[in-house]
Amino acid sequence: MDTEDIRMGCFGSKEKLSKEDLEFLKTHTRYDEAMIKEWYKGFRQDCPSGRLTPDKFVDMYKMFFPSGNAEEFCDHVFRTFDMDKNGYIDFKEFLLAIDVTSAGTPEEKLKWAFRMYDVDGNGVIDVQEMTKIVQAIYDMLGTNSANRPADSAEERAKAIFSKMDENNDGNLTQEEFLKGCLQDEELSKMLTPGA
């Protein structure tokens, strides 16, 4: 099947995956051409405009976490997926993110998680940023979840920092974050939900 064959009929859309985007995704993901086209078909069915909006993104997450409040966590995940910061996720951003979060190495997943935790984008994570994300994870899990830890988000963030902040400067570098997570499997699982 050629890229010309991937034409979507949703709402009269004639959008297709360009050869350039297809080649880019074959080079930068672990997916072959057939799988990329399959993902594209599904993406266009769910997002006929070719744009995944924040509202649609939240709706998708709510299906996986019906008893919790996923909105805050979704805001952070969406911000990380929306690489060009234009307010929506296009197919390329979507597939790159899916590739890392589902098929990536532990290091790739943790680098992605680091970008999510670094809310202000300054290259380090402080306790407030960590607390925000941990609280968002707790909210997403819901109050009745057996998976929800008993400690508060602030207590958990401080405990994480006591393990990872090697130089005690109140900030986690990407190196400290990766090292701390790779040495503690339980911590790694908690800090990369859905990845």
Brief summary of the model shown:
The protein is built from 10 helices and 2 strands.
SSE layout and pairing:
Layout: H1 19-28, H2 33-46, H3 54-64, H4 71-81, H5 91-103, H6 106-117, E1 125-126, H7 127-141, H8 153-164, E2 171-172, H9 174-183, H10 185-191
Antiparallel strand pairs: 1-2
Pfam families: EF-hand_7 (PF13499), EF-hand_8 (PF13833)
Family: Belongs to the recoverin family.
InterPro entries: EF-hand-dom_pair, EF_Hand_1_Ca_BS, EF_hand_dom, Recoverin
Give keywords.
single chain; 195 residues; mainly alpha; Recoverin, domain 1; 2 domains; two-stranded antiparallel sheet; 10 helices; disordered N terminus; EF_Hand_1_Ca_BS; EF-hand domain-containing protein
Outline the structure in words:
Belongs to the recoverin family. Strands 1-2 form a two-stranded antiparallel ribbon. Helix 9 (174-183) packs across helix 10. It folds into 2 domains: 18-103, EF-hand (Recoverin, domain 1, Orthogonal Bundle); 107-195, Orthogonal Bundle (Recoverin, domain 1). 28% of the residues are buried. By secondary structure, it is mainly alpha-helical. It contains 10 helices and 2 strands, in the order H-H-H-H-H-H-E-H-H-E-H-H. 59% of the residues lie in helices and 2% in strands. The longest helix has 15 residues, at 127-141.
Molecular shape: globular
Number of strands: 2
What portion of residues belong to β-strands? under 5%
> Which CATH top level class of the largest domain fits?
Mainly Alpha
Strand order of the largest sheet: 1-2
CATH fold field value of the largest domain: Recoverin, domain 1
Average pLDDT, all residues: 85
Helix content: 55-70%
Biggest sheet features? 2 strands, antiparallel
Order of helices and strands: HHHHHHEHHEHH
Backbone structural class = mainly alpha
CATH superfamily of the largest domain: EF-hand
What is the domain tally? 2
Terminal Cα span: 31 Å
List segments where confidence is low: pLDDT < 50 over at least 5 consecutive residues: 1-14
**What's the alpha carbon Rg, rounded to whole Å?**
18 Å
In the CATH hierarchy, the architecture of the largest domain is: Orthogonal Bundle
**Can you count the helices?**
10
Keywords: Calcium, Metal-binding, Repeat
GO molecular function, one term: calcium ion binding
InterPro entries: EF-hand-dom_pair, EF_Hand_1_Ca_BS, EF_hand_dom, Recoverin
Organism: Meganyctiphanes norvegica (Northern krill)
